[in-house]
Amino acid sequence: QVQLIESGGGLVQAGGSLRLSCAAAERTFSTYAMAWFRRAPGKEREFVAAIRWTTATTYYGDSVKGRFTISRDNAKKTVYLQMNSLKLEDTAIYYCAAPNIAPEYSGTFVFTDNLWYDYWGQGTQVSVSA
Hints:
The protein is mainly β. It has no helices and eleven strands. Strands 2, 4, 5, 6, 9, 10 and 11 form a seven-stranded mixed beta sheet that branches. The termini are far apart.
């Protein structure tokens, strides 16, 4: 079982910034994509951002476009989520995810659908205060 380890959550004031990290515990880990989802209290899990590993093509949820940036470091097997201009409504537990699909896969993949992802981190809390 692949282990994804998240870090970087915390408490920040509205308008501030945080950077989340998610690293695969296994150095040999490879995947087609990695993504961030979040779940706010009383709400469904929401797609935040995803990155296709080989091309670094990025995808964003509408609520975070222009404020969040996803990136990856292939050597460190790590994906980052830079969150700027944070809002109260960004408060949630943020989860890192990856599919059990090889990097060279060329078929259909729905980056925004959590059902396509097989491995999940434990989650990191992000709290935005007024």
